[in-house]
Amino acid sequence: MIHLRHPHWLFLDITKRPRSVSESDLLNRLTDIDRHLCLGISFGLHNSTAQAQITAQAQVPDSQLLQLPLEFLIYCEGLKPFEPEEKSKIRALIETLETLGLKTLKDFVDIPATSISQRWGALGSLLRRRLLGQDYEPIDIFEPAPVLQETYAFDFSCVNLNNLTEALHEVLKRLEWRLIGSGRWAQSMSLEVRHQYSNKNEVITIQPGIPTSEAQQWIKLLTRKLEGWSFENPVAEISVLAFASDRQSLQLHLWNDFENDFERVTPVINSLSTELGLNSVGFAVLENSHVPENGWTLSQIKIKPQAKNAFLPHGPRPTKLLTIPQLLSKKEVDELQYIFRGSERIEAEWWSDSPIDRNYFIARQGSQLVWVFKEVKTQKYFLHGYFD
Amino acid sequence: MSELATQLISADHLEEIQKGIPTGMPNLNEALPWHGLPKNALTAFIGPQGSGRLRLWASAMSQESGFGAFIEKQKQLYPPALAQLGVDLQKLLIIRAHEDKKVLWSLGQILQSRAFGLIACQSPSTLKPSDVHRIASLSRSSGASVVFFFDRLPVDFPHWLFQLQVSFQQPNRLVIEKARVQKPDPISVDKYETAHPMSEHFKQYRLLGKCG
Q1: Angle, CA A108 vertex, CA A107 and CA A114 arms, to 5°
Q2: Kind and range of the H or E element at A155?
Q3: Closest Cβ opposite residue A368 in set B5, B51, B80
Q4: pTM above 0.80, yes or no
Q5: In chain B, where are the structural domains located?
Q6: Residue of B nearest to A313 (CA)
Q7: Do residues B38 and B18 make contact, with C-beta atoms less than 8 angstroms apart?
Q8: Which residues of chain A lie closer than 8 angstroms to B171, CB-CB?
Q9: Cα A278 to the center of its chain, rounded Å
Q10: Is A14 close to B55, i.e. CB distance below 8 A?
């Protein structure tokens, strides 16, 4: 994280550097900049931006900060420079202190905080806090996120979804590269559609579960919204606005306190469902069924917690269940080493055309522990699951 | 140099053994330097289906207070069995990704969300070292423990990216193939007992370990 304060102050938050970049690497890079630009850079390393500015200005080690003369209060700025009237007040403050016989910054911070506040107001208190490193300024995190825009004008009248999707591909691909280039994600996008025979524009806003820069994600969301779109009035131009978010601020968002645990995972569930389909992501809900295959369903919605043992099967169940039981050959049946023989009989759906009547066993098949059943009607054996 | 900078430098050079997620098997925990499955790291469970890999993972999941995720390619996971093993199904997100690429993409999304503590993933049929490297990096930054299930090890398996490798190849036995930390003392466990309520599912195992 780097903050450039016009015209010649560069603040670098070394706590945000990648682990692979050491502190000496950073200093080397700054020295390179110095050498190439012939700037004569001076460095200051400290806990806060204002303290770092003073030590850089005075070119002293950070431990000697408070031994500096009072005139250095004028450099106690940090990311935002003082306004001219603030500088006048600080000069007046320095004169007063010198009149009182005080000489160093330490003399100033030794004055009780309440006395400083009463005599010099908020500015005095701010200077004291900054000298003591109590006024921490985060670098770059709250910088306003940019809005990126890309436009596509049709050479012909766009009257079907395919042509519109092709144009969206091009626009979103350009936005993807711009987002990647700036190291950002888009947290939402809005598509503005301008029609050929009216001045009224239509706007579609989309927001994925989590910010992303991937064009494919945005195309999926947009085409889903555009399904059933009427092209009676042909489209003349589209414009997409991407509201970018900083990657760092996204991480901060994820560490926020959520109202409940479920809210923590909701964004990622939305994102996964968009890509994989609604039936592929969710939490298991046990069902009241004797048939093992119908023992549970997948649900994305937060449901009322079930009682601890509600619908829990009584007999042992395999951790992996085959969707379609696999018929075992006679040789395979002969090789099974039974652990629990005839442990459970499951009868269900007797009223249907294909009632279930099975005797389940737990057996060892080589190094595998398996769940097999013998169908009572046909006397055939099937592999139904693994105790993986 | 300021105290902050000193702390930063120290933190970079400090490799602490962070306490892992208990497996529910006290003897296995004792044998592992993290006293469980390592956090911020990748683990490989190697063995055929039905060898007990998932039951060990489920046992650890039952000890985990945060959210867990299970990523599979085919619909095979049977949650009622996990509930029998003590897993809170409301804390376990199940993801079915039908292609190898989507398995890795889903895993990346899960890790980037930083909302999950323990993740299981059926290994894709092709797993490039570069993919594993990326997952390992995400795992380190997310703080999650990621367990890959391998039926057998691929030819170009990137051993160096997995902190823990447990083999389930033989009946009634699991073997710690590798537990990489700074403590290189070999560990051998030849006796197994557990206090886990569903311990009968594990009683078949006699644990033998080696580490280094």
Answers
A1: 125
A2: strand A147-158
A3: B51
A4: no
A5: 37-211
A6: B80
A7: yes
A8: 364, 366-367
A9: 21
A10: no
Query: One-letter amino acid identity for A312?
Result: L
| pLDDT at residue B209 greater than cutoff 70 | no
Which CATH fold would you assign to the domain B37-211? Rossmann fold (3.40.50)
Q: Which residues contact B112 (CB under 8 A, 6 or more apart)?
A: A210, A268, B138, B142
| Amino acid letter, residue A186 | A
Inter-CA distances, A81 with A53, A73, A77, A78, Å: 11, 12, 5, 7
Average pLDDT of the segment spanning B87-96:
92
Q: pLDDT tens-digit profile of A273-318?
A: 888 888 899 999 888 888 888 889 888 766 566 666 678 888 889 9
First to last CA, chain A: 47
Is A47 in contact with B12 (Cβ distance < 8 A)?
Answer: no
Calpha distance B162→A222 (Å, rounded): 39
Q: Do A320 and B49 touch (CB under 8 A)?
A: yes
Q: Tokens standing for B75?
A: 């619909």
The better pLDDT of the pair A147, B63 is held by B63
- Per the CB < 8 A criterion, the answer to whether A131 and A222 are in contact is no
- Asked whether residue B52 carries a pLDDT value surpassing 60, the answer given is yes
A44 CB neighbours in chain B (<8 A) are none
pLDDT score of B29 more than 80: yes
Which of 44-103 (A) contact B at CB < 8 A? 45-47, 62
Give pairs for A84-91: CB < 8 Å, separation 24+. A86/A123, A89/A120, A89/A123, A90/A123, A90/A127
- Cβ atoms of A376 and A359 within 8 Å: the answer is yes
Indicate yes or no: CB of A368 within 8 angstroms of CB of B48. yes
Q: What's the count of helices (H) and strands (E) in chain A, helices before strands?
A: 10, 13
Min Cα separation B71/chain A (Å): 9
Record: contact A22-B12, CB cut-off 8 A: yes
Given a contact cutoff of 8 angstroms between Cβ atoms, the answer to whether A145 and A184 are in contact is yes
Take residue B93 and report the two structure tokens written for it: 């997100």
Touching B: A residues 337-366, CB under 8 Å: 364-366
Cis peptide before B26 (omega within 30 of 0): no
E strand or H helix that includes residue A384:
strand A381-386
Angle at CA of residue A283, ends A282 and A285, nearest 5°: 130
Cα dist from B55 to A319, A336, B2, B85, whole Å: 7, 21, 50, 8
Q: Which amino acid is at A111?
A: I
